[in-house]
Amino acid sequence: MSRPLVRLALLVGVATLALGPLAAPANADVTGGCTVTINGIDAKTAHSPGTAIEVNEGDTLKVVGTAPGPITGYNVTMKYGLFGYKAKSGVVTGDETTWTGTVKIGDYTRFGVGIYRAEGASTGTVCSGWAYIKVDGPFPLTTAAGAMAGIATIAGVAGMVSAARPPKGGRSPGKGRRVRGSIFGLLAGVGAAVLLQQFAVAPMTPMLMVGVPVGTAMIGLALGWPKAVAVAAAAV
Amino acid sequence: MTETSKFCEQCGAPLAEGIAFCESCGHAVPRDESTPAAPPPAAAGFGVAPAPGPQAAPTPAVPAPSVSSRGRVSWAPLVIGLVGVLLIVVAIVSSL
Predict the structure, then answer these.
(1) Which chain A residue lies closest to B6 (C-alpha atoms)?
(2) ipTM of predicted complex
(3) Is residue A85 assigned to a domain?
(4) pLDDT: which is higher, A73 or A94
(5) Shortest CB distance from A205 goes to which of B10, B63, B95?
(6) CB pair distance less than 8 Å for A211 and B66
(7) Distance of residue B51 Cα from the nearest chain A Cα, in angstroms
(8) Same domain, yes or no, for A79 and A100?
């Protein structure tokens, strides 16, 4: 095996190892004999985009948790890919085994619509659960997040196409085209991932947040390769 | 072309002195007329050195893709692109 292919194989291996944990199943299922409901719906039934709990952007999310023993507090977290925002937290006194947290949807989705992940957890007797919520509102491309994602996707794709075109006059060496293709590919991937989330096609999971931009960056890198189009044609 | 190019006509990569093929894309480098005597091209009209190998075939107007100066095709862009596509598909499917 030639040295470049060995390097490529190593690159793919490292990328796979790095991305593997991102694809692992979510760990915040309802555990420990507890229940978590969101707007009266059992969280366990809303673990896919198709079964997401539908709310409007002006609604309030009511999260109720029940534990088999006394609890001391609770947290409600809104997750977006690798990021999480603690939307609500509270202290529970006495021997209560139930907690309730309310979150105004608009406070956390003001820049867009689509699918988000809501998590609820109690302390003391530890219980946790999560569900996808689908926020309905204006057309995704008219929101701040959707518009910026659309522009990023178009600009990224245009840059990738530009990087794939043969240079003129020796002004753009091959390495520069590959770098340009990768950067614009990354931009297109970030935009595409946000669009998928905004249009409620897929939730913004860590894997989507990282995998799509890395994948499009690799496509951009390939397109910026000298004669990449000819290589593809030869392969076909 | 009578001048020695500083950059490859095909991919724009910088060219070292005296090389016959671009090290980046494999495109044949036109020879300077002042260059010392070299084997004549196998066919008129292309103005390039013969390709390496047992057959001294002329380099076509559109050379083979990503042929290195050693005459090997680089499949790296195709492999990288396919891995990228695969990664996108896996990322989306695993999120559904």
Answers:
(1) A170
(2) 0.71
(3) yes
(4) A73
(5) B95
(6) no
(7) 18
(8) yes
A19 interface with B at CB cutoff 8 Å: yes
Instruction: Say if residue A116 is in the same domain as residue A170.
Output: no
Distance CA A175, CA A184 (A): 14
Structural domain boundaries enclosing A96:
35-136
Same structural domain for residues A121 and A143? no
User: A68-93: per-residue pLDDT in tens?
Assistant: 888 899 898 888 888 888 888 888 88
On whether residue A94 sits in a domain, the answer given is yes
Q: Answer whether B88 touches A (CB < 8 Å).
A: yes
Asked if the Cβ–Cβ distance from B92 to A208 is below 8 Å, we say yes
Q: What's the structural domain count of chain A?
A: 2
More confident residue, A1 or A59: A59
Q: Which residues of chain B have pLDDT under 70?
A: 1-5, 31-73
B90 contacts in chain A (CB < 8 Å):
23, 207, 211
Instruction: Indicate whether A11 belongs to any domain.
Output: no
| Confidence at residue A153, expressed as pLDDT on a 0 to 100 scale | 95
| Same domain, residue pair A159 and A124 | no
pLDDT digits 0-9 by tens, A162-205: 888 776 655 555 678 888 889 999 999 999 999 999 998 999 99
**B71 at A interface, C-beta within 8 A:** no
Q: What are phi and psi of A222, to 5 degrees?
A: -65, -40
The answer to whether residues A146 and A57 touch, using CB atoms and an 8 Å cutoff, is no
User: Is B56's Cβ below 8 Å from some Cβ in A?
Assistant: no
Residue to test with chain A: of B1, B9, B87, B89, most A Cβ within 10 A: B87
Residue pair A119/A77 in contact by the 8 Å Cβ criterion: yes
Structure tokens at A224: 């910026």
Boundary residue ending a domain (A80, A114, A136):
A136
State how far the alpha carbon of B92 is from the alpha carbons of A23, A64, A116, A202, A204, in Å: 10, 31, 15, 7, 10
